[in-house]
TrEMBL record:
It comes from Devosia ureilytica. Keywords: Hydrolase. One of its GO terms (molecular function) is hydrolase activity. InterPro entries: AB_hydrolase, AB_hydrolase_1, AB_hydrolase_fold. This is Alpha/beta hydrolase. Residues 43-272 form the AB hydrolase-1 domain. It holds the Pfam family Abhydrolase_1. The keyword Hydrolase applies. The keyword Glycoprotein does not apply. PANTHER family: AB HYDROLASE-1 DOMAIN-CONTAINING PROTEIN, HYDROLASE, ALPHA/BETA FOLD FAMILY PROTEIN.
């Protein structure tokens, strides 16, 4: 891995062109990509269930990278990163902290989605000084109602997608009306824009372990979210089946001063369906 990049050099301007890199820490080789202008507080992206580096929507990540140093990574045991996936959200947060420190970062902003948002909350709880700003999308708090039902929903939608020759994310992330189906197909298409140096697919065993971790998170005692003092932006669709939309409202109520955006007629992937509206909101939040 080569980290000898001038501080004012733009690494890449589009996520599909971001170089694939690795860094080893704590006995784990972490795969990551970075783009955008170096300098300032970097934005680290925490990805969702069963996802690797190829699962970030370029229509979200590219606008943010125009003015920010962006880093996306595979946590332990996912994609091209080595090791075994932890079976708790808290352990995933510890691995994320190890990766962040290995890059020499002392302060970061976090952009998180779904499981990534749970990991982000756990990281902020243990290392509050590491995080400046927090974006939580499609996610919920520890002990959140019905989070522990995600296994059944996930397996059911994987089956539906298999029977129709579709990507499971079209079912899991989007409503099954005409608008949702169109948005789902467009989203999956955008994920294929990168054609070289694509990531290693996530293994079924990794998915199963992540689902156990999410179930533990959903059944755990509620966290004291008043301890989150970082500026926080929360977003979701109004019909999230994976992490119920009401939990975004709950996060907003319990995190003082947080901002909430709920998009209509959309599901778990509301930010991707409404990327043209959400990306500028995220950029403005990070720039303030």
């Amino acid at each position: 891995m080569d980290r000898n990049i001038p501080s004012n050099e733009t690494i890449a301007t589009r996520y599909k062109d971001a170089p694939a890199r690795t860094i080893t820490a704590g006995g784990v080789s972490y795969a990551y990509r970075e783009l955008g202008p170096r300098g300032g507080v970097p934005v680290v992206f925490f990805v969702h269930l069963a996802a690797n580096l190829d699962n970030w929507d370029p229509r979200i990540i590219d606008p943010i990278a125009k003015g920010h140093h962006v880093i996306a990574f595979d946590n332990r045991g996912l994609g091209a990163s080595s090791g075994k996936v932890p079976d708790s959200v808290e352990a995933m947060a510890e691995d994320a902290a190890t990766f962040i420190r290995a890059l020499g970062l002392e302060k970061i902003d976090i952009f998180s989605f779904s499981l990534g948002g749970m990991v982000a909350q756990a990281l902020v709880a243990k290392y509050p000084g590491l995080v400046r700003k927090l974006i939580l999308t499609g996610t919920g708090p520890a002990g959140g109602k019905d989070i522990d039902k995600v296994r059944g929903i996930t397996y059911f939608d994987i089956l539906r997608a298999t029977l129709t020759g579709s990507d499971p994310k079209e079912f899991l992330f989007f409503n099954r009306n005409a608008i949702g189906k169109s948005a789902g197909r467009a989203f999956v298409g955008r994920l294929k824009e990168r054609t070289v140096n694509r990531d290693v697919p996530v293994r079924i065993k990794a998915l199963q372990t992540q689902l156990r971790a999410i179930e533990k998170w959903g059944r755990s005692a509620p966290a004291d979210l008043s301890r989150i003092t970082q500026p926080t932006l929360i977003a979701n669709g109004d019909n999230d089946r994976m992490v119920p939309s009401v939990l975004s409202t709950d996060l907003h109520r319990r995190i003082k001063g947080s901002e909430l955006v709920i998009y209509p007629d959309s599901g778990h992937g509301g930010i991707f369906q409404f990327h043209e509206k959400f990306a500028p909101v995220a950029v403005a939040f990070l720039d303030r």
